[in-house]
Design goal:
By secondary structure, this protein is of the alpha+beta class. The chain has three helices and three strands.
């Protein structure tokens, strides 16, 4: 059984969040949660929130008595580029520089381990 969660328009560069997503891809869910909890990167919050949501979706689809967090594996963790907000900052001699505030979309998919039946 599979379940997924998507978190759209998260603030942060997709390249930076992609580094965090690489750390949990293919891991068991308890190990992935521990990895993200103790990671020092500030961009981990969006991925952690989406992973918890995907786990919750899987448990609610199967029923609390049938499936537990330990029975799940992170199958896919993908970060896509979102729209960029453009802001202007005044600089010397009446000019302006552009400030890019980047966003991204976080997709996490979890599935049951092999040998676990729901």
């Amino acid at each position: 059984m599979e379940a997924s969660a998507t978190s759209r328009y998260q603030r942060g560069s997709w390249k930076k969040l992609g580094q965090v997503a690489e750390l949990i891809r293919g891991k068991e869910v308890p190990d992935a949660l521990k990895t993200l909890t103790f990671l020092t990167k500030p961009s981990k919050d969006a991925v952690l929130k989406t992973l918890r949501s995907a786990v919750s979706n899987a448990i609610s689809r199967a029923g609390k008595a049938k499936l537990h967090e330990e029975d799940l594996v992170v199958v896919d963790a993908r970060i896509d580029q979102g729209p960029t907000m453009k802001r202007w900052r005044p600089v010397q001699r009446g000019m302006a520089h552009i400030i890019r505030k980047r966003t991204c979309h976080v997709h996490v998919r979890v599935a049951t381990k092999k040998g676990v039946e729901v």
